[in-house]
């Protein structure tokens, strides 16, 4: 009998989110407007996260863009924040553990991602990030959850900058993923 080793869900989620953010970074379609629903983009990101079987390395620079060409300006790290991570833009939920972080300043808009785990409730996670993002001028869009995945989208600057928060639960642990597409000047 052959037994396959299956990576933990959090590793799959982290790898899937990173891949989806990098694919989005290479796309040229505009960010959603405050009046638009972003269910389709959230569904695509969630589907990619759930179906990914990649695993992340401890630290890397360079990754594939939409054209398949490596970008030497992308930084990602497993288990820590990359150097120059914009902690004001995407603050870490108190008590959470970092699974993955990434920053890509090679395109405009720049992309940033953070994957973490916590024992905090989904409501507590949503409340923390909603308060933080609203304080930075982001607006919460209507729409939301996709099946059992909590998904919230925030925009500012007429939709030119956006952040997605998604949360999945497994055995009492919540894995949250933040993906931001913002002007380079907003990386603080």
Structural account:
With 188 residues, the chain is an alpha+beta fold. It has 3 helices and 8 strands, in the order ααββββαββββ. The chain has helices at residues 9-26, 39-51, 122-135, and strands spanning 59-64, 70-78, 97-104, 110-118, 139-140, 150-156, 161-170, 173-182. The protein has an 8-stranded antiparallel β-sheet, with helices on both faces. A hairpin with a 2-residue loop joins strand 7 and strand 8 (173-182). Helix 1 packs across helix 2. Residues 1-25 form the signal peptide. It comes from Psychromicrobium silvestre. Residues 28-74 are annotated as: Disordered. This is Lipoprotein.
Which helices and strands appear, and what pairs or packs with what?
Blueprint (H helix, E strand, L loop, with lengths): L8 H18 L12 H13 L7 E6 L5 E9 L18 E8 L5 E9 L3 H14 L3 E2 L9 E7 L4 E10 L2 E10 L6
Antiparallel strand pairs: 1-2, 2-3, 3-4, 4-8, 5-6, 6-7, 7-8
Helix pairs in contact: 1-2
Tell me the number of helical segments per DSSP (H or I, 4 or more residues long): 3
What is the residue-averaged pLDDT? 74
Q: Rounded to an integer, what's the Rg over CA atoms?
A: 15 Å
Name the strands of the widest sheet in spatial order. Answer: 1-2-3-4-8-7-6-5
- Major β-sheet annotation: 8 strands, antiparallel
Biased composition (Low complexity): 28-72
Keywords: Signal
Region (Disordered): 28-74
Protein name: Lipoprotein
């Amino acid at each position: 009998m052959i037994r396959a080793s299956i990576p933990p869900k959090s590793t799959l989620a982290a790898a899937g989110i990173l891949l989806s953010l990098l694919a989005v970074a290479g796309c040229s379609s505009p960010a959603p407007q405050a009046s638009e629903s972003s269910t389709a983009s959230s569904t695509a990101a969630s589907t990619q996260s759930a179906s990914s079987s990649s695993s992340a390395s401890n630290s890397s620079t360079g990754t594939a863009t939409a054209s398949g060409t490596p970008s030497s300006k992308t930084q990602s790290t497993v288990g820590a924040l990359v150097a120059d991570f914009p902690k004001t833009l995407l603050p870490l939920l108190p008590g959470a553990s970092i699974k993955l972080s990434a920053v890509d300043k090679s395109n405009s808009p720049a992309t940033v991602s953070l994957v973490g785990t916590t024992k905090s409730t989904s409501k507590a996670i949503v409340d923390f990030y909603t308060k933080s993002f609203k304080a930075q001028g982001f607006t919460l869009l209507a729409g939301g959850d996709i099946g059992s995945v909590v998904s919230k989208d925030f925009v500012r600057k007429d939709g030119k900058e956006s952040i997605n928060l998604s949360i999945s639960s497994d055995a009492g642990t919540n894995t949250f993923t933040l993906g931001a597409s913002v002007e380079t000047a907003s990386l603080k």
